[in-house]
Amino acid sequence: MNAKRILFLVAHPPHRGALAFEMLDALLVAAVFEQKVSVLFSGDGVYQLLDTGQPYRDVARSYRALPAYDVNDIYVDKTAMRQRSLSVEALVLPVRVLTRRGIRALIAAQDVVVPD
Amino acid sequence: MKFAIAVHGDATNSESPHSALRFARAAVAKGHQIHRVFFYHAGVNLANSLIVAPQGEPDAGDDWARFATENGIELAVCIAAALRRGVLSEQESHRYDRAAANLKAPFQIVGLGQMIEAAIVADRFVTFCA
User: Domain B2-128's class?
Assistant: First the structure.
């Protein structure tokens, strides 16, 4: 079975019930299934990559483990970052910043898109 | 075409299960195949047989159950999402020593791997967000 390109689209803020952690779980399972996994944080989803310093229920700390699962295609929406006055240095792991045009190209290249 | 459908919202807080069911009915009516419907996040509440819909409102869980039975479609519920929301099969109720089981038939408790498997084998994976 050929690996599929699966993009997880994270657009909701953290601390919205279990949603953030459940999306991360789905992403990690896709990675374990050896699919070509990428993730894009847009809208309030970019807040999921901010380290809040809380020891519990901080999804950012869990996202830090992505490279250990061979997930290295991690993107953030440039507009979402600018609107929230966030810089990539504030995020818990290295990301690639995409313009709207870049996002369109990223989505067009996928077999599957899973929004949160 | 072979579809897989993900339902992320429940009947109380979103249109997700209703929209997804209309989509599924339309797909079947057009002769398409539905490989699996995967209930995740709050969508697992559709499988809670103890929920009572207000009078005059459709019961989304019952509607899904009937549609699936009539068309031989698999309704899969994520086990981790179901446990934390109190949706338990007989087996899980026994395992965690709870007072009752409430999983509605023909919903089945499965692992999250079944969501990714559905995304892999289906021609289209369609998500209905909360």
Answer: alpha beta
